[in-house]
Design brief:
Elements: H1 2-37, E1 43-50, E2 53-60, E3 67-76, E4 79-90, E5 96-101, E6 109-116, E7 120-123, E8 128-129, H2 135-139, H3 148-160, H4 164-182, H5 184-232
Antiparallel strand pairs: 1-2, 2-5, 3-4, 3-6, 6-7, 6-8
Length: 233
């Protein structure tokens, strides 16, 4: 009988020990599974420029792809000044990146919070600090391309040079205008002189012709009388 009682106690103790070991193993596996499934260290944030616009990117490299909510806050003296935005990301082994459009200022500070129920509920440490150079300042460098301004100034004298040419053309246009105005005047004068001369010459010639005819007729008459008188003697 005592031998049987000892064996039962041994079996009961062994079963208890096995149960405790199994529970510890399950707890350890659960913690390890949670650590492998999603971890704050799998998230990273960065402030960059997309052309002239500022952006904040958050990358999740969780291979399990557990959905996580990313919330970005602008900080001011350790307090949230404003909420920039909130998005859900599902990580991947290669990394999944989401983008927040934010016109950030140089050396600004942002708090990036990650929430994945049952896995993560904390901020990315340390807080995100933006670069010392703003995005818009990078585009101010092309402003020297506004050098066309000297070309414009060079073009203005070129445009001024044509201004005297119209004056010359105007003088030329006035010169031919004077010639036609003078041309009719001599023609009119000549015609008047021709008409007046023709009228005065015609009267003089007619008078002289009549006088000559009268003189000639008288001379013929007296000549014939002298011949008749001489023949009768």
């Amino acid at each position: 009988m005592p031998v049987l009682s000892i064996s039962r106690r041994t079996v009961a103790r062994s079963a208890r020990a096995l149960g405790v070991a199994s529970a510890a193993a399950a707890l350890a596996l659960g913690v390890a599974g949670n650590a492998i499934a999603c971890n704050i260290n799998e998230f990273s944030a960065e402030a960059k420029c997309d052309g002239k616009n500022g952006i904040i990117t958050v990358t999740d490299v969780d291979p399990a792809g557990v959905p996580a909510t990313i919330t970005v806050y602008l900080q001011n003296n350790g307090a949230d000044l404003k909420k920039v935005g909130e998005q859900v990301v599902k990580g991947s082994r290669q990394g999944t990146t989401i983008t927040f459009t934010e016109d950030w200022k140089p050396n600004a500070e942002y708090r990036v919070h990650v929430t994945a129920k049952g896995y993560v509920d904390e901020d990315i440490k340390p807080n995100l600090t933006t670069p010392a150079t703003a995005c818009k300042e990078e585009e101010e460098s092309p402003t020297p391309t506004a050098t066309p301004s000297p070309s414009d100034s060079a073009s203005t004298p070129a445009e001024e040079s044509p201004s005297p040419t119209p004056s010359a053309s105007e003088s030329e246009s006035t010169a031919p205008a004077s010639t036609p105005s003078n041309a009719p005047t001599p023609a009119a004068g000549d015609s008047n002189l021709a008409e007046t001369g023709a009228n005065s010459n015609t009267g003089i010639i007619a008078g002289v012709a009549a006088a000559l005819v009268a003189i000639g007729g008288g001379a013929v008459y007296f000549g014939m009388r002298r011949r008749g008188a001489s023949s009768s003697r």
